[in-house]
Amino acid sequence: MRIAEQLIESLRTADRVTMLTGAGLSAESGLATFRGKATSIWENFNPMDVATPHAFEQDPELVWGWYEWRRMQAMRAQPNDGHRAITALQGKLRQLSLVTQNVDDLHERAGSHFVRHLHGTLQHPRCAACGQPHEFPSSEIPNEPAAGRRIEPPRCTRCGSRVRPGVVWFGESIPRREWEAAEQSARLCDVFFCVGTSGLVEPAASLVHFAREEGALTVQINTESTGLEDRLSYDLRGSAGIILPELVCRL
Ligand code: OAD
Ligand code: ZN
Questions:
Q1: What residues have CB less than 8 Å from 236, skipping those under 6 apart?
Q2: Distance CA 220, CA 237 (A)
Q3: Which ligand lies nearest the alpha carbon of 126?
Q4: Which CATH number fits domain 33-76+126-164: 2.160.20.10, 3.30.1600.10, 3.30.470.20, 3.30.9.10?
Q5: pLDDT tens across 110-160, in order?
Q6: pTM (2 decimals)?
Q7: For the domain with range 1-31+79-119+174-251, which CATH number is right: 3.40.630.30, 3.10.20.90, 2.60.120.10, 3.40.50.1220?
Q8: Sorting pLDDT into bands at 50, 70 and 90, what band is 1?
Q9: Is the Cβ atom of 36 under 6 angstroms away from ligand 1?
C-alpha cells in the first residue's frame, strides 16, 4: 500500500485529527466483525434475539450469557499492531481524538487515552433499573468462551434488580456526552479517519459526513470497499494492522 506523501504532510501540519474505529480493527486480534463473512456475528446471531432491550426483558439469561461469551473472547484477545499504532499516533500527532464503535477494551490495553466508546463497553455493565455500575472482580480470569450458554445476570447491590450489559442496544441512543464529544471532534478536525468500519450503522456513520461538510480531509482504512468512497479524500485499501504502523513510520 502506497500512502501519498501529501496525506503524510497534511497529518504533520494538522492541529486536530479524529479517528473512528470499528470491528475491522479488532479482527486481527481474533474478534469477529459483525458483517461480511460467514464467521461474522450477525451472520450467526439475530440481533433482535440478543441485542435489544426487549430481548433482555424476554430472556435475560440468554442475553447475559451471550455478552459474557463476547466479554471472555475480548479478555482473551490481545491488542494488535493497529491498536498499538494508534497509541503511537496519539503521541506523534498534535491531537488525535479517538472514537470507537467497539465494545472491547483493546484500545485502552494498547495504551490509548480518552477513548470515546459510542456503543458502550463489555467491561462496564450497570443495573437495568437504577443504573448503578456493576464491578467485575479485578482478579477475574477469563473462562473458555462458550456460545449460547445461559447465565443468570448478577443482581444490583443497591436495589436488587438485574444487571444489564453496558453496551448500546438496537433501539437505544448513544450516551449523550459521548455522542456530543464525537460530533464535535468530527466537525472540528482537519483530518478524519474511518478505520475498519462498514459505515452502515447510524449515527456513527454520519461522523464522516460532518467532518467532510466542515472541510476536513477524509481517509478510510479498510480491507474492502464500503460505499463511503465518494466521501473520501484518501481510500487506503488493506488491513489496519499494516497500514496504521506504516503511517506511524512515515510521520
Ligand atoms: P462491521 O462488521 O459492520 O464492519 C467491519 C469492517 O471492517 C468491514 O468494512 C470490513 O471490510 C473491515 N475490515 C475487516 N478486517 C479488517 C482489517 N484487518 N483491517 C481493516 N478493515 C477491516 O463492523 P462495524 O462497522 O464496527 O453495533 O459495525 C458497526 C456496529 O454494527 C457495531 O458497533 C455493532 C454492529 O451492530 C452494535 O451492536 C450497537
Ligand atoms: Zn439497581
A1: 1, 3, 219, 220, 221, 222, 243
A2: 8
A3: 2
A4: 3.30.1600.10
A5: 999 999 999 999 999 999 999 999 999 888 888 877 777 899 999 999 999
A6: 0.97
A7: 3.40.50.1220
A8: low
A9: yes
